[in-house]
Amino acid sequence: MFDFSKHINEGAAILVQVELPNVSSNVKIFMKRIDLVHPIISGNKWFKMKYNIAEMMEQGKETLLTFGGAFSNHIHAAAEAGKTFGFKTIGLIRGEEHLPLNETLQSARDSGMVLHYIDRTTFRERDSEDFLKSVKDELGDVYILPLGGTNNIALKGCTEIVKQITIDYDYICSASGSGGTFAGIVAGLNGNKKGIAFPALKGGEFLEEVISDLVLNYSGREFKNWSLNTDYHFGGFAKLTKELVEFTKNFEKLNGFELDYIYTNKMMFGIAKLIKSGYFKSGETIVAIHSGGLQGNLGMKERINKLRL
Q1: 20 to 30 A from 30, CA-CA: which of 14, 100, 117, 299?
Q2: Which region holds residue 84: left if phi is over 0, alpha if psi is between -120 and 50, else beta?
Q3: Which residues are within 8 A (CB) of 199 and not within 5 positions of it... i.e. 6 or more apart?
Q4: Average confidence (pLDDT) over 195-204
């Protein structure tokens, strides 16, 4: 396989013990800092892409095409991966173009990604055979990576997150968007320990079926050692409240590093609430995955500041 280690440092994904604001407990909380493997191709986005990039190169394809919204961490990371590893990238973006471009899309374009905009109705058909055929007819023999980078090959990379945890623990917790990262974690756990996913979007109950199907398709097995907690979406994807913003800022003061405002901070808030409620027992150890995505905080700055007034 292509040697990615000149640019990606998986050894930098340290495990650090953290404190939670206003939580006093004998439950130990660690964070697996996979956000540190690269400044931009960071966190779960790298682990989902690594074997897809290798597969694309194995197939001899020169262009990766993928999908995302206007503030997509996945689009941001995929564009940088193309620049770093020397392949072309195309991003099919949900919605209409708005100028000037936001920080995410401008960065993607600066990294060489060609952006095409798709209306929301068509975007919902992105996985259909007819749509994918039309894309290849128009754009050539591209390697297609689904929304969020989630496919069977992505799960293989995400199983390695589990393998890199070197302490004994009781739970792994992960935020969830498309379900791919957590599905890889479940497959990596292989029936051992317990996993909890915290969907970042309202109505995330549908992810139970999505994750189950992804795990079954990847491993051929069904596991019962995981669950969803859908109580901490704060109104929906990228929604914030004053309480969540204050929690996030206090976490940063206590621990000396940032959380992202779309995924990881909601998970950590949820963990804090579950500790206070007694869900986690004294003496248990939790490993929470810091999945990166810090570039998205730039687009949230105005809303964050308003909520702190």
Answers
A1: 299
A2: alpha
A3: 175, 176, 177, 207, 228, 230, 233
A4: 96
At residue 308, the pLDDT reads 67
What the block records as the tokens of 218 is 């990847």
E strand map for the chain: 15-17, 28-32, 63-68, 88-94, 114-118, 143-145, 171-176, 194-199, 226-228, 285-289
Q: How far is Cα 196 from Cα 229, in angstroms, rounded to an integer? A: 7
Q: What is the pLDDT of residues 256-287, one digit of tens each?
A: 999 999 999 999 999 999 999 999 999 999 99
Contact 113, 75 (CB under 8 A): yes
End-to-end CA distance of the chain: 51
How much is the pLDDT for 34?
97
Tokens of 166: 């070197």
Confidence of residue 302 (pLDDT cuts 50, 70, 90): confident
Q: Which pLDDT value is given to residue 1?
A: 65
Q: How far apart are CA 253 and CA 248, in angstroms?
A: 9
Alpha carbon distance 44, 171 (integer Å): 18
C-alpha span between 204 and 75 (Å, rounded): 22
DSSP designation for 228 = E
Integer Cα distance of 202 and 179 in angstroms? 14
Helices (H) and strands (E) in the chain, counts: 11, 10
Q: Has residue 194 got a pLDDT over 90?
A: yes
**Cis preceding linkage at 146, omega within 30:** no
Backbone CA torsion sign across 97, 98, 99, 104? negative
User: Alpha helices, DSSP H only, in 127-263?
Assistant: 129-139, 152-163, 180-189, 207-219, 242-255
Among candidates 3, 1, 32, which has minimal Cα distance to 18? Answer: 32
Kindly write down the DSSP assignment for every residue of 231-264, as one continuous string.
Answer: S--TTSTT---HHHHHHHHHHHHHHSS---TTTH
